[in-house]
Specification:
Layout (H helix, E strand, L loop, with lengths): L9 H14 L3 E6 L3 H17 L4 E6 L8 H9 L4 E7 L3 E3 L8 E3 L19 E2 L22 E4 L8 H10 L7 E3 L2 E6 L7 H11 L6 H7 L18 H11 L1 H10 L3 H7 L14 H11 L4 H19 L24 H8 L7 H5 L10 H4 L13
Parallel strand pairs: 1-2, 1-7, 2-3, 3-6, 7-9
Antiparallel strand pairs: 4-5, 8-9
Length: about 400
Amino acid sequence: MRKVRLGYSVFDAAVRRMAEVYQDGHTVVVCMSGGKDSGACLEIAIKAAEMTGNLPVKAVTRDEEICFPGTYDYLERAAARPEVDMSWLVANQPVVNVFNRANPYFWVFDPQLDPDEWVRKPPEWATYIKELNIDAMVHPSRYSVAEGKCLIAVIGLRVSESARRLMGLASSGGHMTAIADRAGVPYRTIRPIYDWQDGDIWKAHIDHGWDYNIAYDQMHRIGMSRKALRIGPPTMTPFGADALRYAAMVWPKWFDRLCNRLKGVRQAAQFGKLVAMPRRRKGETWEECFKRLCIDEAPAEWIRERAETAMKMCQKRHSLHAPSTSIPETIGCIECGNGNLTSWRALTEACFNGDPFSLRLGGMGLSRFPYLEPEFFREGAGTWGGVPSF
């Protein structure tokens, strides 16, 4: 997308975007994670709502149980502000733990555990919901919408964080998504700070004296780079291992509770992201590595079954144009489609943790590969009610 100079700051642009939706009479809900971006969105929404006479600002957060200390303290302070009408939801949904290969989920505030085994407890005034999918945070069943108006979710997406986010915003044509239907009500998402950089976020916090999550300060003081600072469940990707290493030094008591709660976390903090990634032995090919780690030594039958199915699908597709050769080791076969994604290395990396959501297998062109519902891992756990989302 071509950059356009508007003649005013990104802060003023964000306030204008929010003021417009308030003036138009839509129902606006700020989605809060406890991070700096959603916090900035809340402050901008408060300013815009005050300008247009729409206080208090509706906000919502979904409690994930496990997040860096300070996160939920900040959210409770935000909820206590008179300018904010906060909904605090608990869904008991599964969350990914990539450091436990056999079972990739843990359940938030797991009802099958003694509450003393949880890392922390939710506020007494929290609302419990049955929906597992994160889209249920902003739903017409909880927010009234005037006739002819939209239900609008405010999210702190910034395109500077990834090329995929930039392309997603470009495809939607602007800071607001197209109108969709949600339970018979028009629904949109607005991204008021999409064009902000990290520096813009912190400058706004300093200039305006906004409250924020002190976990950022504590992690930065101990050596974590500003770019690497992320607030969210730290077990969702292998890259969370670096954050866990810092967290073990900053909050040792919290880290011990986390290790008792989730398998594999202590090893991730000790050895890094490699504990959640396949490693070849000396002299071993990627094909041999795949068959050893994902089939012969797979820690669970479901991982073995998915790996065998994925291997057969890739081999069958490759044999259609190269019947006398095997799948390439590292550089993917162009004729298989999907460029360099189809190789023994890519297959190993995709199947190592089972890929229960078919994110990587889907990227290899195995689009019909099913994702596994929470019900598969725990009887009575239910289904996502759509595409898995966190």
